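quick one before i forget lol
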Amino acid sequence: MFKKMTPAQKTEAKWGLLFVAPTIIGLLVLNFYPIFNTIYQSFCKTGDFGKGNTFVGLANYSKVLQASETWQSLWNTIKYAIIEVPFGIVIALILAVLLNKKIGGRSIYRTIFFLPMVCAPAAVAMVWKWLYNTQFGLLNNVLHTNVAWISDPNIAWISIGVIGVWSIIGYNMVLFIGGLQEIPGDFYEAASIDGANGLRQFFSITVPLLSPTTFFIVQTRIIGALTIFDLMFMVMDKTNVALKKVQSIVYLFYQYAFTNGNKGYGATLVVILLVFIMIITVILQQVEKKVVYHN
């Protein structure tokens, strides 16, 4: 390639490589190496003090796949995604449509809904733990009930899902607003002339033309929901009786890899989750070809 270049082009190419070198090195060190190292560790038994790993083949995979807590944690993760993804998208879409109109204080409303995205996760967890507190929580005091929102195994996963929806609405809303602003206003004017009301315009114009943005959000939020950890870690105490019915598979990985020191077992959990996400992604890519409208 360099032989066909002029001296000036060669100099420009060398400077270009020099500028992108830090990014490439960062990707190799911080992304690619950990991926391959994790896959390698999944075939090993962790030695004493995390050193001297012993190759055990598929032994870790056999144990992980036979453990009931693996499937329970995977199911917990899927249940969380079922709550966070659709509700977070639908509510954000409605808010985006409303806040894309010319209304007073539009910027203020947008800022308010986006605030959860810039709040520290620890602060969010502390506030919601207070709201959910059985004895002194705001929810029980307002509703005059005595519900164990995050201690009852039957509803704790729903309570965690609500926090996830609240946290992600602002991010989804901003993406939807960006997509809405790309839709030409002529379409709505023509529809109004033809007698289409606002609801008909929403389903016939907004939803189809917004499908690329919607699908992007669906894909990224599914991946984000399946890798949820910090929210559950900070809201659910280790002594919580509902923890087993709420903990995600990444939370289970943390328990084995960092609390129990069994990094080989923990790495196996991550690899299984990676394969699961890849399967979901492939399915979504096939669905995209059929449902996404590209104008």
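fyi The chain has one domain: 67-259+269-291.
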